Amino acid sequence: MKHVAERGRRGGFGVIETLIALLIVAIGLASAYPLVTQAGYGVRRGRDHYVATTIALASLEGARKLSRAQLPELARENVRVDEQGTEDADGRFRRTVTVQPDVPAAGLTQVTAIVEITDRMRGGFRGELQQVSMVFTDY
Q1: How far is CA 72 from CA 101, 123, 126, in A?
Q2: Residue 21 host element (H or E)
Q3: Which of 33, 41, 45, 63 is least surrounded by Cβ atoms within 10 Å, i.e. has the fewest?
Q4: Is 7 contained in some domain?
Q5: CA 103, 104, 106: angle at the middle one, nearest 5?
Q6: How many separate domains does the chain show?
Q7: Domain residues for 60?
């Protein structure tokens, strides 16, 4: 028996097949890119809300050591703060603390901290915020 060597097509991938495979992979990656960037934006946005809540809680925590008569000293409007809650003209958060004596009833004082969050995509404050309230009284 004679073995005849076949000439012509050999096993393996050719240049055309490899280019088509690369094109399919590139299309898949290009279509996944918006999903990945949106997921990253969502993670950063969630973190910003967590930080805003922490800033608001820290603002109210300082009120615990004050008497009810001293609480109005905490009131501030539209103070820009950084991620640690310290005043910073370039901060990404804006904090407002309001003090309402005799709310919700006589002898009680409601202190509310509102922290607005800068929109990372469009810049500026666009309405996203976290709000925390506590009621204080004298013992």
Answers
A1: 8, 32, 28
A2: helix 15-61
A3: 33
A4: no
A5: 70
A6: 1
A7: 15-136
